[in-house]
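User: Okay, second chain of the day. Same drill as before: sequence in, structure tokens out.
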Amino acid sequence: MMFGTSFTRATTSTVALAMITGALVLQPSDARAAAPAAPPAAAFSSALSSTTTASEFDTLRQKYAVMLAGGSTFDASDADIAARITRITATGQQYWDSMKKNSDRNRLWDDSPFGNDSASVTRTYQHLRDMALAYSTAGSSLQGNTQLKADLIGALDWMNTKVYYNGATMYQNWWHWQIGAPLALNDIVALVYSDLTSTQVSGYMAAVSYAQPTVAMTGANRLWESQVIAISGINAQDAARVAAGRDGLSALFPYVTTGDGFYADGSFVQHNFYAYNGGYGASLLSGIADLMYLLEDSTWDVTDPNSANVIQWVYNAYEPFIYKGNLMDMVRGREASRFGTQDDDAAVSVLASITRLADVAPPADSTAFKSMIKAWLSVDADKTFLSQVPVDLIVSAKDILGDSTVPARAELVASRQFTGIDRTVHLRPGFGFGISMASSRIGGYESINSENAKGWHTGDGMTYLYNNDLSQFNDDFWPTVDSYRLPGTTVLKNTTQPANSRTDKSWVGGASILGQYGVTGMELHPVGRTLEGKKSWFMFDDEIVALGAGITSTDGIGTETIVENRKLNAAGDNALTVNGAATSSALGWAETASGVNTVHLSGSVAGSDIGYYFPGGATVNGLREQRTGNWKQLNSSSEWANTTAINRNYLSLALDQGTNPSNAGYSYVLLPNKTSAQVSSYAAAPHISILENSASVQAVRENSLNVTGINFWKDEPTSAAGVTTDKKASVMVSKTTDSVELSVADPTQKNTGQVYLTLDGPATGLISKDPEVTVLQYTPTVKVKVNVNGAGGKDFHVKFSLGGAQQPNPAPIALPNVYEAETLPVNALTDSVTLYNDANASGGKKLGVNNNAVGDYIEFSVDVPQAGTYDITSRAFKSSGNGIYQLSVGGNNVGSPQDFFWSTTAGQKDLTSGSYAFPAPGSYLIRLTTTGKNSSAAGYKLMLDYLKLTPTAGS
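Assistant: Same drill. Structure tokens below.
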């Protein structure tokens, strides 16, 4: 799906476009410093397979050309189509006029010299592609222009002789040779195929086959490889290359649980640590959607069963992040720093992909996708989408808009935790709310290739409030906002964070309930600083409660929490009231107000007012300012740098925690879309109660909903809001007169065992539960345990009845006879383990612990269902390499080290380390640490069969 960047924000000289149906390829997303050694030339073949006819290739190529240029059946007098054709024509004319046509030329354009800068190869083919598009588009004044055709083909031949040919030396950046240039060249050949000789087609495609012989990479690069190979196969009538390109997609379909790719929760990660649904992920979606659409019902139809995941990506990875047609910047990585592709422009490729997929999806999904498109395009007042997509997609979009049988999707109502990328989205009628965070798993921000230079605090709990002011985060927000003071963050004043780094804290995530309400938390610890704190957000129906606790620092720098930093109207005079009294609307106003209970900021458009309630009162620093910046300060790459000075006006609100705070905190409530009077009424009778705000637990109840969110920050028994847990957890409780529902997650993603919870009060029975939940007791209190091992932060649910006949409590869970080593969850280890089949082992398997030195260890998570004092025994198999081990529970040594080496003929041996008192049911960490080895032993390893707990005599 072809689309261009917004020409209202960038000129063609600034942004060189390569439009491979849905992928911006002007800048390699994973550019490497040098090209690899040139691959061997791929054999070029135009021979057809026995089952493939030339007409099928022609059909596919013509279909692809329609995807690029629109075909000939559209109404060129349609205003939106005519405007698009005018732009296509102007761009083609611009590059035709500026192209060098002299016989002794050493380049085709001044902006693209050859010999050192490989980007010039891609850029040259992009310019030629723009000329080919104008030449091939019906209704363009350049359509069929014979001189344009001659100059275009002459330039293609020149490139194929001088620069890009079979056997050419590929210098500098591999990406331009293997992906960027061939993407554009493939398009050109598809567009002007009938004007080329078979020798020319063969020569051009031989160059592509030489540069890109096979699909070998991962992520977006793999997708682009697949596109290059499949389309070149269609152009060259090479069935094997079409099949290879299609088959290259298969590695992209499955969900991942670590590293790059799509996660089951809708997250998309690239470069191992960064949220990129709206960057690399959008490129994947676009290219895959194009190929699925193009190849449908052909010999090379995409039939991989896992391709069904692509349909689910739309619902889980994209729909929640598109607010009224704008793609949230918090999932765009460093691409948010690119001039000309702000959030409305960035959404175009995703909407185009969904439009394409609507034609290949099952009927119910097709209808749902069209409803999404209709809803988003209905609020696209400046026609960002229609001004950028290919003509055939304009036709498809307008057909959807005009189809009375397709209802516009209502506003999405959801509360989602994207635990794979440390992002939260909360969507309600009239507003959307996003949180971008960082952890030991996900980096704060990526800055490479001279991009995203000021992303310092975008991963520090920045909050995004979306409403009818759809230009809030575009219209040059990023170059003008104070990047030291982003909304939602708690920061050391005027300090930055290092790029491409991760904090050491893992507690980041949350839980949702009823599909509508959520709680999110983040343990803050900026890299290289002493600043720490616990931050939580409680998201209900018409309010978001933000709490901070345990804010402590010895950095000697002032600390502040930014409640708001909102872009204002052009005059900067949006009305601001504090405790109901108007403040100055003049730019430059600054005030520190104490005893603040309420603040109200008038929006720049209807439906964008925001209220702020400070429970118990607060001292608030307010500032109304005009700020000046330019895009080059964020992104100095040649493709995206723009030095034009931009002025925008902002209103900020902040809470000062002082220099070197100790256990400081804050609380405030965001009230989207409320009038000043409504904010005052809310403050007089708040719907929420802050039940606790400490470094141990933060809890808030929404009284009218009777929904409670709780973040437990410590691995120890802790009680709050009628819930007790023994481990770090994020919990939500929803209670009605006849039922209570519980949602539990492990935001640390480190717990390899169970979370035990108790609800104050009884239940009469079970209504429903996830398989990971085990009900231990209904009365006199509800008790459950939740297996969170390997859950990746996912929340689990259980619902109980409060009325009707009392169900008996489940039978107590018996202590396992043994804990098989091969099935015990491994919480941590220093070396590797090896699983062996052994008929003499109790479970038919034994676990080889491959420790190599003193201090090496393996740590298991052991679920102990009954409190008590137990002897802990390890059964080992005889091995000449067994070492001496100290057993410990939760860091406490049990007995003395045990020597697991023996020289007798016994094949197995039980060694009891000692006894340990387990104070309560729960998951305990049992560690075996190497302390030495027998002088006769060959190493420090351990061949382990099982662990066993036996009640200590007399206990």
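DSSP finds 14 helices and 47 strands in the chain.

User: Thanks, on to the next one.
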